[in-house]
Amino acid sequence: MSPSFKFIVGLTGGIGSGKSAAAARFEQAHGIHVVDADVKSRVVVEPGRPALHAIVDRFGDVVLLGDGSLNRAALRERVFQYPDERRWLEQLLHPLIRDEIMADLAAAHSPYALLVSPLLVESGQYQMTQRVVVVDVPEAVQIARTVARDDVPEEQVRAILQAQARREERLRHADDVISNDQDLAALHAQVDALHQRYLKLASGART
């Protein structure tokens, strides 16, 4: 459960949907405390952390870079080829990531906090929130944006999409939807409107 005195909005969307752009608007234009699950997922596998030792024991030094840090691309390629390995990794990392998220959310001082996570639905992290907003785009747009952004093969992007919740499943959990199939100004306008709604909801939750 989320800290009882915090109003937490979960923000999610598939790869290439524009989650980062939406989160940046909440943070930079409105001063909202943002907790990024992707950032926390990197923290828990930093050199010296127990999780990194467990991953190396499982996959070998091939998942390490020369400086001893995690080679995320090599690990991603491995786990998306073998679903059992992906499930093992999720069982290892999800509880650790959750602990990091909870500590950061508890430190928030803005009227509400924003938990940004691509796996908000799949990992059950949505249960830590009072409201879920989904950044939504058609799958074809996700693929085109991610291929262009990350310079990766389309097949790899499709594999990642298969590992994430289906678009319909995310939308089923959504209290609010940001449609990001237009320009940045349109995205910002939707975020700004939601911010005003969340201020009122957070204020009501505190009374």
TrEMBL record:
Q: Which SUPFAM superfamilies match?
A: P-loop containing nucleoside triphosphate hydrolases
GO MF, one term, reads: kinase activity
What reaction(s) does this enzyme catalyze? 3'-dephospho-CoA + ATP = ADP + CoA + H(+)
Pathway of this protein? Cofactor biosynthesis; coenzyme A biosynthesis; CoA from (R)-pantothenate: step 5/5
| Record keywords | ATP-binding, Coenzyme A biosynthesis, Cytoplasm, Kinase, Nucleotide-binding, Transferase
Binding site residues for ATP? 16-21
| InterPro entries in UniProt | Depp_CoAkinase, P-loop_NTPase
Q: Where in the cell is it found?
A: Cytoplasm
| PROSITE patterns per the UniProt record, alphabetical | DPCK
* Chief localisation class: cytoplasm
Q: What is its EC number?
A: 2.7.1.24
Q: Which top-rank group of organisms is this from?
A: Bacteria
Assigned protein family: Belongs to the CoaE family.
Protein purpose = Catalyzes the phosphorylation of the 3'-hydroxyl group of dephosphocoenzyme A to form coenzyme A.
The protein depicted here goes by the name: Dephospho-CoA kinase
Which gene is transcribed and translated to give this protein?
coaE
